[in-house]
Amino acid sequence: MQKKQPLAQRIKTKAFWWVQLRDLSILLIVLFVISSYLQRNMVSGSAPPLKGITLSQQGFDISNINKPTLVYFWGTWCGVCKITSPMVNSVATSDDYRVISIAVASGSDTDIQTYMAANDLHFAVINQNQPTQDLSNQWGAHALPSIYIIDDKQQIRFVTSGVTFSWGLKFRLWLTSFY
């Protein structure tokens, strides 16, 4: 039986790095396939209608936006949203971009406000708790979180689903200002 070399020696070999590259490539391909599958129903092109009253009783109508806007579908029950919401919150604190979120199947306004306060989140929220308000289906947001980056002409420029980072969101919003 052959004894395995110590890690310090294996790191110095080309074979070790080829195995690492192969494994990383496989992982990236799997993540790309999963991401593509989750985003398959997300709409593109012109943004569907989005009107509502936020939890702070402010009206919102996507047809009135005049700067890049992040539209965020999420839920208080969504584990991945617990990671992504602080990233969206960091974008919402900037005056350069607009953020509107739609809480899907997350209970009453009070339930959502309690969740927002407990997690120190400060972005605008429309509660999608009425059966007549089916925004997530209109937008194709079937996997949460779903994020849409909209330009000032109500065109969807970027979509993503799952975990994302604030620098990535800010970069895509910044790129949108050049369309």
From TrEMBL:
GO terms for molecular function: antioxidant activity; oxidoreductase activity. Coiled coil: none annotated. Residues 41-179 form the Thioredoxin domain. Keywords: Membrane, Transmembrane, Transmembrane helix. InterPro entries: AhpC/TSA, Thioredoxin-like_sf, Thioredoxin_domain, Thioredoxin_ResA/DsbE_sf. The chain crosses the membrane at residues 21-38. Pfam families: AhpC-TSA (PF00578). This is Protein disulfide oxidoreductase.
